[in-house]
Amino acid sequence: MLCNKGDEFVLASYKIAVIIEEINQSYQSSILNGIASSAAEFDLNISAFISFSGALDNPRHDTGEFNIFNLPDFSDFDGAILLTNTLAYQPVVNDILARIKAAGIPAVSIDNDIPYLYHIGIDNKTAMRQITEHMIKKHGFTKFAYISGPQDNPESADRMSAFLEVLKENNISVNDDYIYYGDFRAPSGRAAVESLLSKADGLPQAIICANDVMAASAINRLSDEGLSVPDDIAVTGFDNTYSNHNYQVELTSVERPLSLSGRLACKMLYNHFNNLSQKRNIILNMSAKFTESCGCCENILSDISEFKKLNYRNYLKFQRSQDYSMVINKLSCDLLACNTFHEYIDSLKKFVVSIDPEEFYFCLCENWDSDSAVDITSSDVIGNINIPDKYTEDMIAAIAYVRGEFYQPHKIASRSIIPSIADNDGSGKFYYVIPLHFAERCLGYMVILNAKIPLHNSMFETFCISVSNSLENIRKLICLEYAVDRLGKLYVQDTFSGIYNRNGFIQATAQQYHECVTQGKEVMLMFIDLDGLKKINDTYGHSVGDNAIRNVADVLRQSCVNGEVYCRFGGDEFIVFGADYTEHSAKQLTDTILQNIEAINESKINPFKLSASTGYVIAVPTENEDIFDFVTDADKKMYYEKRKKKLSKYLKG
Length: 653
Known about the structure:
The chain has helices at residues 26-38, 59-66, 90-103, 124-137, 154-169, 186-197, 212-224, 258-273, 304-336, 341-355, 458-492, 502-519, 533-540, 542-559, 583-603, 629-652; strands spanning 2-5, 8-11, 14-21, 44-51, 79-82, 107-110, 118-122, 144-148, 179-181, 206-209, 234-236, 253-255, 281-284, 287-289, 359-365, 394-402, 405-407, 410-413, 430-438, 441-449, 523-530, 565-570, 573-579, 612-619. It is of the alpha/beta class. A hairpin with a 2-residue loop joins strand 1 and strand 2. It is elongated.
């Protein structure tokens, strides 16, 4: 792809979106390694959208994780690589496929064969047939159990179908109670064995598993019961992700080129972009590997030098996990100790420096900390609380770190995903895009390129959860401040008119009143009463009468511009306080108030004529006098003015 740069055309790399879940599993990790190592070769820049779901058995957490797949606008990408078989929730898969189809971009599906996409897969049936036939013909087993993946997963269905076909061809039956439907994760293997242990007919001779993760977990659970594999029961896996003899029992499995799948996905997109002829469908060769867990003990590792290498690899792996755990624990403590967003960002920046990524971005939704994000009046809610579950149109790049330098926070469009700070010439970049959320509440996302910490690791999931949870803690602290502020306003503010209530009036005048007492200065206390409110209510209704009260509050806002403090005293009554006031100033304020009332009448916004009576007192307060001691005198003067007004009207009549 060519792009214009100045007066010359340069080769621009293609933007590829990868959709994948649970990158801490060997299957996903191996494929991602293949993609990452081939991206530059095929002129691609990768953005891998990652989620972790299912393992915590928390649907609300899973909803927040899945939201990362809503972030990419696929029309902004040149192509996509999909591992939809790793996503546990089919509606999410359906939505992704529909959006890719609408965008009209080429996409490669690894393992799941989706008719209108390129496909890289394996012959699941042939491989599972090899495993099952071996267990029957080589070892003579006739009593089987099967641990399957999800029922709606095409690969899982093919593998179980082949298993059942071979049993039928050999006149062997399997009770439905001995078929367990899992989800390709380790807990499924343990749960399946626990189910088998409860069967009245006892354990089978062999357990055939749809993948290595469940097989390894099943062996572990059997070991807890004192059962030996393969002496007491045989177990087989699939995918050979527990290769290199790094498990307590060498696992009979199906060896498949996972890394090659990633590389070929890149190549298929490259061929498409360059109009090179290719097949839509590639089926990779694979072979069964029979070893210790099925009873083929003659094939197990015997070279002591290999054992030494294995032990050293495992030691390094353990040491890295320990170091990683310490880093994550320290980060968690530091972040949870933060009381402000500024402290939180500073702590996270220190962590970013310590892992030294080539690029790191921490992007937050504009409403991530908004006190209006929760609307308890909404009917479209979860638990009666409307929770923002989508990325905002604009995001705040609170942290932008590129090659050792932090950049100022700034806004970016969410569809851009990655801030345009780094030099984007060249290809081979592999960005990990990870959701920030608390349950289904969408907070933002992180982007990481080439960090020192291993991302294909269960500790990385712990890191992501820790960052999100601590961010939610800061959000709650901010919202608590909002709530305290609102409560404070409710205490001092008349919610109806928006001006001070009596409490607010007392607080706002305390300092000035005290100074006038100690310095012997005069104070002014004015009492204002709205005329004819009952008649307005009776004639036009209370809602119109409410407008009259608000009109007087507006008049006081316009009139009291020289430091006066005013409030709604109650009902249709208002008071105004002025410090160091003179008779002349009080008369001027009275005239201004009446003029502003007349201006409202001239605007004819009301069906009635707005009118108010005023009265004021001016005096030097003493230590024994409270500010409200002057209200009575001001009230009397106001009523005197009101009576004069009524008498004048009567005489005119």
